[in-house]
Amino acid sequence: MLKITTPLSEATIKSLKVGDSVLLSGRIVTARDAAHKLMVEEKPDFIREYLKDAVIYHCGPVVKQDSKGEWSFVSAGPTTSSREEPYQSTVIGEYGVRAVIGKGGMGPKTLAGLKEHGAVYLHAIGGSGSVTASRVKKVEKVFMMEEFGTPEAFWVVEVEDFPVIVTMDAHGNSLHANILEESEKVYKDLIK
């Protein structure tokens, strides 16, 4: 199991390969559909410093606030990443993002962007939201909550030993594409 910590260097990212199990620590930023659309269409500067050499997590967390106004995550499972396919490569390049966490993988446009900009896609296990939330040690900031609502807001958090697997690397390899190709071969053999 490899351990990496943000900020992430290009050299660190390029050392990762499809199939590597990773424990990630440091800053990550949640971003879903509304956040990605905003980053592509309006290119806001408020989130820039939090994304440089950092990680975007496709997640709509369940959160709670204590009597002191401090936020914490109750559930933080990954959401399906394919919805961000139209935006992700542009966001990676514009903001200097080094990794994207989600579930289900992404398509060829994102894969090309990962290779071009030196970034990776990290698969998180779905259905384990409360376990994943236990890896979130601190909520630093939240942006756009009033405008987008809790799940779609940008949550800037610190994580410790967040478990993920590299399924798309900075060298143009995709476990998701490989599985699709192999599945299509099996399917064609079955229908002969």
Task: Tell me the layout of helices and strands.
Blueprint lengths: L1 E4 L4 H6 L5 E10 L2 H9 L6 H4 L3 E3 L4 E4 L5 E5 L12 H8 L3 E4 L5 H10 L2 E4 L5 H5 L2 E8 L1 H4 L5 E15 L6 H16 L2
Parallel strand pairs: 1-2, 2-3, 3-6, 6-7
Antiparallel strand pairs: 2-9, 4-5, 7-9, 8-9
Helix pairs in contact: 4-5
Summarize the structure.
The chain has eight helices and nine strands.
What does this structure look like?
The protein is of the alpha/beta class and 192 residues long. It has one domain (2-190): Alpha-Beta Barrel (fumarase). The protein is 32% helix and 30% strand. It contains eight helices and nine strands. It has helices at 10-15, 33-41, 48-51, 88-95, 108-117, 129-133, 145-148, 175-190, and strands at residues 2-5, 21-30, 55-57, 62-65, 71-75, 99-102, 120-123, 136-143, 154-168. Strands 2-3-6-7-9 form a five-stranded mixed beta barrel. α4 runs parallel beside α5 (108-117). The longest helix has 16 residues, at 175-190. The radius of gyration is 17 Å and the shape is globular. The model has no long low-confidence stretch (mean pLDDT 94).
